[in-house]
Amino acid sequence: MTITFEASSSNPPLAAVLVAEYVKDVIQVKVNWGKNTLIKLSNDMSFNSNTAIARYLARLASSVKLYGNNTLEATEVDHWLEFSVGRLGCPSEYKDAVEYLNQVLGLRTYLVGDSISLADFSVWGALRGNSEWLATLQRKQAPTHVSRWYKFLSAQEQFQATEKSAPKLATAATTKAGGSSTSTKKEDAGKFVELPGAEKGKLVVRFPPEASGYLHIGHAKAALLNQYYQLAFDGTLIMRFDDTNPAKESSEFEQVILGDIELLGLKPNKFTHTSDHFDIILEYGEKMIKKGQAYVDDTEPEVMKQEREQRQESKNRSNSVEKNLKLWQEMLKGSEEGQKCCVRAKIDMNSDNGCMRDPTIFRCKNEIHVRTGDKYKAYPTYDFACPIVDSREDVTHALRTTEYHDRDDQYYWFIEALGLRRPYIWEYSRLNLQNTVLSKRKLTWFVANGYVDGWDDPRFPTVRGVLRRGMTVEGLKQFMVAQGSSRSVVMMEWDKIWSFNRKVIDPVAPRYVALKKDEMVPVNLTAAKEEVKEVAKHPKNVDVGKKKVYYSSKVFVEGADAETMSVGEVVTFVNWGNIIIKKINKDSAGKITSLDAELNLENTDYKKTTKVTWLAEHSLGAFTPTVCVNFENIISKPVLDKDDDFKKYIGHQTRFESVMVGDPELVNLKKGDIIQLQRRGFYICDQPYEPLSPHTGRDSPCVLFYIPDGHQKDMPTAGSKEKTKQAKPASTKQEQKGGKKKEEKKAESQVVSSADSTAVQAMVDKITAQGDLVRKLKSEKADKSAVDAEVKNLLALKADYKKLTGQDFKPGAKPQAKTPAKTPAKTPAKQAATSADPAKVDAIITEITNQGDKVRGLKSKKAPKEEVDVEVKVLLGLKAQYKEMTGTDYKPGATGGKKADSKEKTHNPGASGDKKTETANADPEVTALVTKITSQGEKVRTLKTNKAPKDEVDAEVKTLLALKAQYKEKTGSDYKPPGSGGGRDKKEKKEKEKKSKEKENKEKPKEKPKEKPKEKAKEDKSSAEGAKKQSRLGLEAKKEENLSEWYSQIITKSEMIEYYDVSGCYVLRPWAYSIWEEIKSFFDKKIKALGVENCYFPIFVSHSALEREKTHIADFAPEVAWVTKSGQSELAEPIAIRPTSETAMYPAYAKWVQSHRDLPIRLNQWCNVVRWEFKHPQPFLRTREFLWQEGHTAWSNRKDAVEEVYTILDYYARVYEELLAIPVIKGQKTEKEKFAGGDFTTTVEAYIGASGRAIQGATSHHLGQNFSKMFDITFEDPGQPSKHQYVHQNSWGLTTRTIGVLCMVHGDNRGLILPPRIASVETIIVPCGITATLSDADKNTLLDKCKSYVDLFRSANIKAKADYRDNYSPGWKFNHWELKGVPLRIELGPRDMQKNQFVAVRRDNGEKVTLPEEGAIEKIKALLDDIQTSLFNNAKKERDAHVKVTSSWDEFCTFLDQKNLIMAPFCGEIPCEEKIKKDSARDQDIEPGAPSMGAKSLCYPFDQPAEVSDSTICVYPDCNNKAIKYCMFGRSY
Length: 1533
Known about the structure:
40% of the residues lie in helices and 18% in strands. The chain is an alpha+beta fold. Helix 1 (14-22) packs parallel to helix 2, helix 20 crosses helix 21 (494-505) and helix 31 packs antiparallel against helix 32 (950-971).
């Protein structure tokens, strides 16, 4: 049955027509255009309104679900139908209605639900028929979100069909919008250039990414630019994967890119691959060879490169066609001969355009292609394939960035040579962003080397990365649209892209509160009641919803806010009202401990009050543990020059975490939610809060990533205040940030002023004119050689400018007038100083100081030498001016023109210019107090210098702090030492003193000229930049200063680890794997002697098997990696990769065990496991894939099973103590920390002294009958044949974590130190004394002697090796093997050989001894045994010194902060353990990236430090339970 309705031509019922168009495949609807709108269903029933007809058709085609998916969505649809004919259709309410619509569409694609509905049709129709809306759209003044939604719908097929069919609309669009609706869209974009020759409906563009990595925002610009022209011209967009290089192509990256395309909202019309055309491309290649347009070349790549640069023809250029075809066939076969060849196009080797000098068009790669397998061996280059595929796929316009400009001629040469259709190339500028890299090769390097967590790392410029950091797709689109298709190449700061994003998120981001955990100050509010109220999440947008705010008599504010408050002040608490500060409580050091205040809610004057964010302690609203994460740029230099090595500018510490206490409402955040923390900024939820796990007893904090908002100035966080009564420091955070820039500007102006202004201006004019000429030539596409010549002239002019002014040329540079040179004064220095203006002298001293700081800063950052030299010249110029003014050379500490004997200035601690402080200094009490502080400070320094007892020093420091607190009460400002320079830190002061002394030493007469070269060498080594390249073989980080960086360097530079391109996975190099083999050999022999057998179970675990073990696997659930596809096909059921093997092994045990005779089963497997989810991977310690052994045994009785648990634990302890020389503490885990599903867990715990943390070494679990009941592992009871018993089970495991512990415990600042028993090389023999004067005979004799020592030692089972490499010096080898940790080094030279002796050097202490050859084996064995023992004893001594016993909570916390392990009486209750962990936390990041934590229970040591009596209670102060044992607590990995 066909439904017919009449639609009014003068007032088109767009919603109804759209519904008819949308449901035409479900019901037959015919639309006739006429005078009225009417649908007649019967003689008695008809509808004559747009809304009624739309509703009827939508309900009739219910399967299309245009009326929503449920009752709630249907109600929403009705709301929008009323809105479209009501508020949106009323002229007086139109503007408010559009604004409301814009807010709603902030984070939505459709108005209702996740798909299009009748609501979208109705509202779009109302806007499409509104002339005011069309005019707003044309003027580009339409609200962002409505505009985006409207254009998105307008581009869809049904909407375009409706526009075309409605007769009145076409006229309206022409008259109202100045053309077609399509032209309106194009104008709205602003910067988009009209494509030459583009025709509506005929345009074809393509987006051709290579599937070798994730899309970055440069690709996003290309994709969105192509989409823009696709929509603007009703054209076709081809999504083509460039898969010409089989080595780089990855199906995984293809899927990721397709996902990114979907995220960006692209809808390509076709999806293709370059490999679809391989056959025809090969035909074209062969055709060119036959026509003499190409030849096969077997020249070495490096030689070929040189020949192209030198414009020399290849020896193969003149090959005959027959020879070329023969070699071509070898390439097609992939033979050994073919793999040496490539095919080159024969174009022009004398061309000024390097791309035209016989480029390579095919290379032979005997590799598997991800799509074509091994079908092809010869693969085309992108440059050859691109024009062919563009032409064959009917691409009309190829959009390429300007960096491909030189290849355009090559592109068209291929088109003409092959007789193909000619696409039009349109160039646009690539997106260049500061402080990052957009090269896939460089981005891959970051991922592979572990500098980022993966391709979606929030510091990365990938689409996934910026979205994870909080960029919205809409913000990204708006930014790209603003860039348009301009050819202007600019280097952008990130601020611009984030400012676009801020406009999108600001109107819709809900507001919450979070306070820094370690800076909270309690406020006691009398008369405040505990209550809960609902307030708007967004103060300006009620549609965002409401949140609960908790009120009580005890609230917390930031410490910085508390510092700004004064007694009697009225302060506004946001979302509450005004309060009055009654009392400020401080400790002896003057720090605020709490505030007393009272409510003043009846006072509603908030204009001149300080606005403060707060959180209330409430019984119903617990604070949300929160971590706020800020990121810095991955590249420290804003703009990398062409020759810069990006690896030198890596930002090593780019992630910063702050532990916060969050609003109770933050527990409701979901991953990806964007919020604003008031007075802190915008954040995106990366990890939602997870409550306490019933298995681990741990909760996971809410992790928020800071979203940059494009502001140069940081958002005020705390302590900001509108006060005039208290003087404020002049320097804000922003001024500090910009300090360097100001100093640079000062320096630049000074340099320019020193040059003749007329000459400089003439030079500027020349450079400007030459720059215009270069730009003109480029715009006219002049010959490349002509452009290059003019560019050289431009660079030469800029070099002359730098020589003249001492600085690089910058556009718009304006020289200052040169100050006339003064004639050197002939009067004495005193007269010169007296005549100088004191203010000017002080000003020049300040400039010299600032410039000196800048030079030192550049040197400390190892800046390029040229940059340092420029700034040194500026500094010398300033010092020359000082000498001209004063008649004396400048010396650090110079007082300038002011009187040195001024008492007020000498004793003025407020030298920063604080007026209040200067006033206070006139007070005699203040002066006396300053004298006391100075005297007490000297006393403290003397005690520290004399290394007095710590208690004595602490007592005097307390006295000093008390005096400073008194000073602050008197003056209102912190005490600053005289001459502190307004707040310069002590470190800078010490540096200046050091430099001053060095300078004085240089100026003294050189009494000992013989010592000068040595001192000079040292000085040159420390200060000269780039004078001598360093090999960087050794460690650059120190263990005691930066443990994380030290650890990263030691495992890579000692050749233990190689980073891999999957984050969290690492390559174990032979040096590391050999350690694992030694452990494996030792332990394997022990367990086999017990009767344990090795086996292997599959790595894959079925979904159903995991489901059976839900309770146990719950802790691993987030970590399970799943296989979901096979090739391109989806698996029927996902398969897990084992996180542990219980689920794989125990079903087999159930089959194998029938009788008690089948027991015990004692199996072990050496295998790998995968645990995917974690935040901070660390090689060996915390990785996604690791090696381990896991033993699983089943017993008929508990006694035998338990006995095995302790036997295995003893073996684990022996692995650590006998092999690794690491002392461990054996014990039993608490109920909270035991293995989930087990009866009890035993452990060996080691101690890492550098971090003060414990680390679990290995565990042995008694599982009881829990798992046998779960998997039904039973045996027939021999005493009762008809009855079955469940088996008793154990599991035990040891991992490659052992290697990480070894590195951390024994390593030092020179590298690894390996205990002999675990080292694959115990003794390295290095031949020495091989010089140019040593004869070949003597050299061979020496090497033979080394070999004889190797054989001798190996015969005695000493693992020996000799280093015969002749391309390294002995010194280099010493460092190399020290870094690798070889226990003993033997140095053997010609003289040693003559004396029948050798030199042995210990790695552990550097001790060097000369030993006779006689009895060498016994002596070497004794040395190795002593090294093994010494390493163990040293580690034990350090461990024992950091194990403390206490029953006092205060001592417990103090010991913990001193990096100790604490043994304390403990009740064993889980809630008590959680409180201990929470209340002992000090939020100290022991290592960058490591989580802050309190004390965690490690174990109940088997060797108890003391007996627990009936009167011994738990160490936790709020717990009165009887202690069951002494438990060892500590911070742990």
